[in-house]
Specification:
Helices cover 37% and strands 13% of the residues. It is built from seven helices and eight strands. Residues 56-134 form the RRM domain.
């Protein structure tokens, strides 16, 4: 990250970049998990069937299953006139999925709701409020494709740059004059929190496209007897490895059980 880019740093992403979203300070140069790579490869197109003005629409999440459209209207109408409320429900069961979209009539109303309604408690649940991102943020990739913002530590897929988890400011190394530089000018170098990784994700991306081409060719090629024998041998090897792993796990559990019995015996002796 250059000095100019450091001056342009913001805690909230202006465009969505899956690689940056996967980094706590937005400086990663390689994806640190497969979900980030999946988001980079994704080609997401926003739902054209969604109606309403995206610039006047709020995203409300972490709702209780008991929260209804009427309750949302009661709470959010205090910030201004509401044009439309859509509580997202499961298509099969009809149960709430825990998030909704609220469209206001005026810009000052949505700005006030965005400022004051975040972390309100509705039906014993602390809610999360943000602007709609699907149609507003360039390059947006949803959570189900490895993108999104936020997340929990337990899931192992934290995404930064949003309101819930903004970027942390990168740590810059101070300027030191180079001993062999007669002009005494140093170079400002950022220190990224990301570590060097042995694999190159760009190679992985090229391999992904190459593999897709190979798979497409394999589909077009007729299935032969040699292919059948090869697949059979591969299946046997995989089953053998699986049996070996299961045997090791079983032996490990038996050993732990035996040690536990010995400890209990000595304790009650």
């Amino acid at each position: 990250m250059s000095y100019m880019k450091m001056n342009e740093w913001t805690p909230i992403a202006k465009d969505y970049d899956p690689l940056k979203a996967g980094s706590i300070d937005g400086t990663d140069e390689e994806p640190h998990d497969r979900a980030v790579l999946r988001a980079i490869l994704a080609r997401y197109v926003p739902n054209k069937g969604v109606i309403g003005d995206p610039h006047l629409t709020l995203y409300v999440a972490r709702l209780s299953q008991q929260t209804t459209e009427e309750k949302l209207k009661e709470v959010f109408s205090r910030y201004g006139d509401i044009k439309r409320i859509r509580l997202v429900r499961d298509f099969i069961t009809g149960f709430s999925k825990g998030y909704a979209f609220i469209e206001y009539k005026q810009e000052n109303a949505i700005m006030k709701a965005h400022r004051d309604a975040n972390k309100l408690v509705i039906d014993q649940r602390e809610i999360f409020v943000d602007f709609e991102l699907e149609r507003n943020l360039k390059g947006w990739v949803p959570r189900r494709l490895g993108g999104g913002f936020g997340g929990k530590k337990e899931s192992g897929q934290l995404r930064f740059g949003g309101r819930d988890r903004p970027f942390r400011k990168p740590i810059n190394l101070p300027i030191f004059p180079h001993p062999f530089n007669s002009e005494g000018r140093g170079e400002r170098r950022p220190r990224s929190r990301s570590k060097d990784r042995s694999h190159d994700w760009r190679e992985q991306r090229r391999d992904y496209g190459r593999d897709r081409g190979i798979r497409r060719q394999d589909k077009e090629r007729p299935y032969t007897k040699d292919d059948k024998e090869h697949n059979s041998e591969h299946t046997k090897r995989e089953r053998s490895r699986e049996r070996t792993r299961n045997d090791k796990d079983r032996n490990r559990k038996d050993s732990k059980r035996e040690k536990s019995r010995e400890r209990n015996y000595k304790k009650h002796k």
